[in-house]
């Protein structure tokens, strides 16, 4: 046992007192290895020092330190989940090297710790269990122990994440509170603390520590935080490359659990968040209109969190007072709560032909109780969409919009309108365009726009908004002016700026481009939100009511006019007069970029180039893999481009010949080029040209092919799959999958769905997929290659051998300017190479047989070699750990796990690789080439 000096002991006192004072769960603190060792030494020494004294009261001076020590020890307690504390205290005393003195509960050590825990509880320094095995339970609660129980808690959190939250968590307080209340209810009902608790579809071994947090209402905030921390970390790991931020012991355990689940295949993490609607409480139900990615206009009701899950709600849809449909809302049962599934209907499918206005009403009821009534909130003369969402703003920036209306003739629409689908139109709005209906006027205005019929404020920054919490505001910089037209009597109008009233005639004004403009700068709050209102004193009606963010010196600069594919750059924001800047990286993957400024967030649209074919998905990067087979397109198929403002381009298609596509606005006639091309055996590459730069857009397949290997082995399911989605070609005609000499599958047409291929043992098989001859045309191979049945790492070098080119005797990176490489005199090779997965190290190694071609050119396996002691040692098999694809570290005499003979030597004088350490130097690294074993 190490002696602890006074300075170190005092430092340990300070650390443990701070840990107890700052942590609700004491075990959440992670002691360093040195601190943990000192804790155990001090605790052991203190017990031995006091063991012959009677226990009368708590050892107050050492209370925090001793409690931290047993909590730290409890983290390593391997419990069988019986919640039996007898074995635990024995484990504690054994860890403290005191088991010879304190192995019975009625001896000094047990009583000593009981008094420590009782003192800390009564002085409210730690949270405590108050019933049952309260002292043991208190320790286990603070240690988040045993691990099997906390892992069961993580299982519950993941099931809530997947089943209740549909794989998306964002500080959902309802699910947190329901989870805590559910645990409280379940544990209160259970007669035994040893019994697993059944929640939803599964029984969970949530043991004594977690149970004590659940049944005490005053401890619920602690349990709520554990749920929130776990769900937040799981959501982040699921969508961000399994990245955990280990900030305490709880997240350390969560990280270990997550990696274990990934390895076992029980969790398959995602890399892309699926768009979905967040479930809402019954008091927050709402309905809205949405334009999906295919341009269909839908009426949407998000999922509803049900308080009563005994009956399914019903939804009714009316047009005016006429019922259009009535149906049941389907529900989804999670672990903790029941939600309805999101509901959506296409407007074209539910609206009658004879109506001219979209006067829809939704009514949601459950057991005769009205959960939601939209009343007139869904009434529209027309619906205007910016991207996928409806916009109700009266002033919008020029650009691409979608309009849904039942009577397009009732609207005053500018040029640039084209039909998309039934009742749906594309609008390319230009500066100063307007949409005018009976009760609404929409202006498309840039910052330099002028209006003769309305008041508006110049200086808005195009493509930028300012956000606080859930609200967005336009952004103004420079010197904003109020522009008015047709104002005859200034005294008839008053202006309110941030709650201060002024007559319009009191503002400084000047004539500008036939408008009268009024200077606002001196009245605006800088780098802050401003409330502006101008209204008539006669009618008391507002002419303009606007809330906006104003920052006089704010400037936004992109380092490129457009972004596409892997083109990266930066966006720079200048925030003040001194030129202070904020910079963020930009790519075509970013729809927007954002900056934290002035107690809010600045959201900026990125100028990116995008394209699509017909009405398919938009793309922001080249699609070198063919998107379509030529027969899937028609003569009228078009390529549509969305181009950032100020960009001009030409569009071309090539199949050995360069052809400029005919341009009709932003639509290019691609179908005509495909059907007039005589080069049907070559894929057609489509590209745009901007400022002389060729930019690849897509590839149209002119011959049948697979865009990725069509046959793959799923390691987690241990099954071989044919993947139908990888096929590009005709959907008719026979097709054959031939594992040459082993298995043949003949089909009347290409499979439209993926399927399992059975009957093949683990190995590597040559495979060919082809169209057989039909008597008129010869057989045509579509794909050929080797198929691995089993883990590919195991067969990575099947049919291969490694030729050792040189060895290195030093340390450093695999670089010629750092390492000195030596060439062996003889030709050394390794064959019979097989991958072996080491569970302990969690990585793949490779074993093989090392052999040499000696000076007679004969192949000789190094099965046994004399060492420096004249003893024979078995060299083969050897184990390889690859550092790069062409370099590895090697040990000889491998058996299994970490058992091996050792590293080989290089005799510089003879140029031999051997196991003689008397005349050779240890080889650090081998450089090789991979060859076919013929």
Structural class: alpha+beta
Low-confidence stretches: 449-453
Shape: globular
Helix run count: 13
Mean pLDDT, all residues: 84
Rg calculated over all Cα atoms: 37 Å
Question: How much beta, percentage-wise?
Answer: 35-45%
Helix content: 10-25%
Report on the biggest sheet. Answer: 8 strands, mixed
Strand order, biggest sheet?
27-26-30-31-24-23-36-35
Number of strands: 67
Distance between the termini: 63 Å
Concise account of the structure shown:
With 934 residues, the chain is α+β, with helices and mostly antiparallel strands. The protein is 18% helix and 36% strand.
How would you characterize this protein structure?
The chain has 934 residues and is an alpha+beta fold. 18% of the residues lie in helices and 36% in strands. The strands form 17 sheets. Strands 27-26-30-31-24-23-36-35 form an eight-stranded mixed beta sheet, with no helix packed on it. A six-stranded antiparallel barrel has the order 55-57-58-62-63-67. Strand 11 and strand 12 (369-373) form a beta hairpin. Helix 10 (220-239) packs across helix 11 (249-264). The protein is globular. The two termini are 63 Å apart. 30% of the residues are buried.
Q: Which features does this protein show?
A:
alpha+beta, 934 residues
Chain-wise SSE layout:
Blueprint: H1 6-22, H2 33-50, H3 63-74, H4 86-95, H5 108-122, H6 134-143, H7 147-164, H8 173-189, E1 197-199, E2 202-204, H9 208-215, H10 220-239, H11 249-264, E3 288-291, E4 297-301, E5 305-306, E6 314-319, E7 322-328, E8 331-333, E9 338-340, E10 343-346, H12 347-350, E11 358-366, E12 369-373, E13 379-380, E14 383-386, E15 389-390, E16 395-396, E17 399-404, E18 417-421, E19 424-429, E20 434-436, E21 441-444, E22 456-457, E23 460-468, E24 471-476, E25 481-484, E26 493-497, E27 500-503, E28 509-512, E29 515-519, E30 528-536, E31 542-550, E32 555-558, E33 568-574, E34 581-587, E35 592-597, E36 600-605, E37 610-613, E38 623-629, E39 638-642, E40 650-654, E41 658-660, E42 663-664, E43 667-669, H13 670-676, E44 684-690, E45 693-701, E46 705-706, E47 711-714, E48 719-722, E49 727-728, E50 735-739, E51 743-747, E52 755-757, E53 763-771, E54 780-789, E55 800-808, E56 821-822, E57 827-838, E58 843-853, E59 859-861, E60 865-866, E61 872-873, E62 878-884, E63 887-891, E64 905-907, E65 912-914, E66 921-922, E67 925-932
Helix pairs in contact: 2-3, 3-5, 3-6, 6-9, 7-10, 8-10, 10-11
